[in-house]
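assembly run, all chains below
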Amino acid sequence: MIPTILEGVRAFGLAILQAVLMLTLAPLLKTLIKMMKARLQNRQGPPLLQGYYDLAKLFRKEAVRSETASWVFVAGPRVYFAAAVSATALIPVLISAAPLEVAGGILLLVGTLALGRFALATAALDTGSAFGGMGSSRDMTIAALAEPALMLGLFTSALAAGTLNLGALVRHALAQGVTFHPSDVLAFAGLFIIVIAETGRVPVDNPATHLELTMIHEAMLLEYSGPDLALVEWASAVKELLYLTLLVDLFMPFGMATGTAPLALVVSLLAWAFKVFVLAIAVTATESMNAKLRLFRVPELVSISLGLAFLALTIRFL
Amino acid sequence: MNAFLLMDVGVPAAVVIRLVAVAVTLVLARRVTASRYVALGGSILASILTVAVAISVLIGGSSADGLLFRHSASGIALSYSVTPLSAWFLMVLGLIAIPTAIYSMAYFAHSVAPARTAFVGSAFNVMLGAVELVFTASDVIMFLFAWELMTLATATLVATEHEQRTSRRAAYLYLVMSHVGTGCLLGGFLVLSAAAGSASFPSMLAGNVLHGLTRDGVFLLFFLGFAVKAGIVPFHVWLPEAHPAAPSSVSALMSSVLITAGVYGLFRVCAFGLGVPALGWGLTLSALGTVSAIMGVLYALTQTDLKRLLAYSTIENAGIMALGLGASMLAMTDSHPALATLAAAASLAHVLNHAVFKGLLFLGAGSVVMGTGTRQLEQFGGLLRRMPWTGLFFLVGSMSIAGLPLLNGFISEWLTFQALLLGFHTTPGFSRLNYPLSGALLALTSALAAACFVKVFGISFLALPRSPAAAEAHESPRAMLAPQAFLAASCVGLGLFPGVVLNGLSSVLASLPGLQPSSLMSWGGLEMASPSQFDHVIPAMFGMALLGGLLAAGLLSTRTRFAIRREPTWGCGGELSARTEYTASAFSKPLVMVFQAIYRPTRQVETLAQVSPYFTQEVRYRSEMEPTFERYVYGPLLRAVLGVANGMKVLQAGSLHAYIGYVLALAVGLMLLVWWRG
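ok done. output:
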């Protein structure tokens, strides 16, 4: 059903609020993971607000662009940012409904993230340096391999709930109460590996390196500076928060508010923050306890994820 | 014009216009410009007529029948019938043929030798006319005549530059494979018409004519015949040779329209003309469709010839159409009309969407080839500065084929996913796992297609030119840009208003036996929804959200204290030139290495030294990737056939006595046979 004007305005208003929430908290998540990693390495790590300081600094700086770059180079970070921000409107965060859930579900979400990646990868080829081409090539390879595993993992939850719409999926899970199915563990493990791959964390990619041999995502960002770089960094952080929220929605949505009562929203916010924090600890542990894989070992890791998702599907439905 | 008059005379009028155009073109062959305008103008006029007929049939929902030709003395009557299914394919044909003809007016002037223009123009008309007759044929003779004419016209267009060995070989391969396919079709039609007692389609394809093993055998014959034309693996080997050899606007038509002739046959005969499909039929079609999709995109990734890459991508999309149709046939076997309708709608929607974006990409490729003078991706680079409009339209086409949201590729991909996931719910038991796995493989193909087209667009249009040809490229004239603009606008329009496509399909689906369009999806102009609220998408609404995101990005990044500074790219302390850029082969190398088991590349490195092995003078590198089916299927097949032919050479010893002896032996043998039987 196409919504009426009033419903549409309300939906967009909620979408804007949710986007602002995600944009505000995303740098905090990134810095939190950095700080925890540092503490595990017996260092002190950055202050928790460092992410915000970095973004503010970058927005104030001058943008230097290559002479060979065209409008595609300028459009890349902006489309990437727009894709990440508009994707946040498709997932439920605090209430058991996504603001724009009538506009699309899982397929549109995956498609939007693919749109952002397409834009960034294409723009990376625009400067004429080999780093951009290298990052673009490696990132598209890993994305191509991760996509079937991501889809299969998402399909498992979707088919169990009978809908591809994330809001309806969460409502179905909440209505069923606290249930546990053994396939959930396998599906979670499979999807966690994909989240690591898509957000560019060790063991797939090292987010802190700028060495030619080791960078994948960073290679695509190498030529950006000033506001362009700020937009891309912010969008990457939002994507990370989005993926972790997606895991929360699919596997542990309990505590989410079912209405817009203020008390329920506060409880929901605290529950969500806690769950994302636990997942951040899991990401930190994975990063700290594993070495980065060689590029041609990543397909093996992704196929493990595919196998886990397939097993989850089989166990659940047969 | 009165609607009834249009439906009555539309198709014959189009045929007459094309014949007149061909005749006048050939008469005016010496006057190049005049013959070009007559040929293409006539084609445009005829296409407009057929599109008008097609749209009125789609809106009205009932077929338009009529007589094309009757010879009262011998009783030969050639009739035509525009069923809703035919109308859909005719509409797709016209939608691509009109922009392509406008494009060709300028393209033929620059890229086809003047002496050949009249010939190419008339072959263009003959090919399009033949395809229109294939779609509207309602009896066997008309169908086979039009099919054969289509093959011959296409072959002559493929062989336009016949002084080049590759063109000759491509045309020959295309002719041989098409004729094998047509032979299978002929066999199938013979059995079918013998069983039905009539040669007209309504009685032959009623579905209750054949049973049991005969029916399976006839399905196999028809499948072979139509799969060759549609480019389904393993019958696709002619496609990557033939499509690049033809002039680019003709390649656009071949990829968008001639492939659909095979798909039309699969729909009309194999899926909906032989009765309820058997289990094996749907499985064959889905399995081969999936294999085509994956093999097509994998080989597209490795190509460095732009048009060959697009040809392999056509194989991928033909596979997706076959996958949708196969899922529909499986659903009909299991008596699930809702699922069958959804899958058939996905396949037909992909026919339209593929025609639009592939047509756009081929026309863009034609502009690029004309502007630079070469087809090799490794020679391009920086074309966005020299050809800004072509680049923009090619970007829209690339994003469509990658299945990105807000464009039309996403729409048919979404529909196919819905069909596969709904199939999971309606199928009990172990075989239901096929569906999510097919979904995962479909996701893999679309992600690989995205990687492929990032490569194509990025390497061709961005960064520095890699050769003098690219550095001096020139933009195409406006007559060539306007059709591309129209097709790009169609990609965006169809992506934002998907309901229009589905509304158009409703009369087609209603006319096919065993389908139930009313049980299905709600389809306002802006939205699509699948049954039981499984999924729901409104691209336009999401487009507004994306615009909001772009606005936010713009607002955040405009208030800078400093102006933007332009500096040369850092070349690691050395000179930055086109040599340091990434190449197309380098871009796809990681994927080649991951999928090594399928590609089986061979590599040979030779170092030559004169004085001492430590002072190398020359390094020779040779890398080869022979496509799987050519190496493991067609190679051995060809060698077996040639081996048998060689073995039979002994019979032709050249001795007259031997030949007389053969005749005598045959005569004696026949007499014995007759005596024994009698």
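The mean pLDDT of chain A is 92.

The radius of gyration of chain A is 19 Å.

not gonna interpret more than that til we talk
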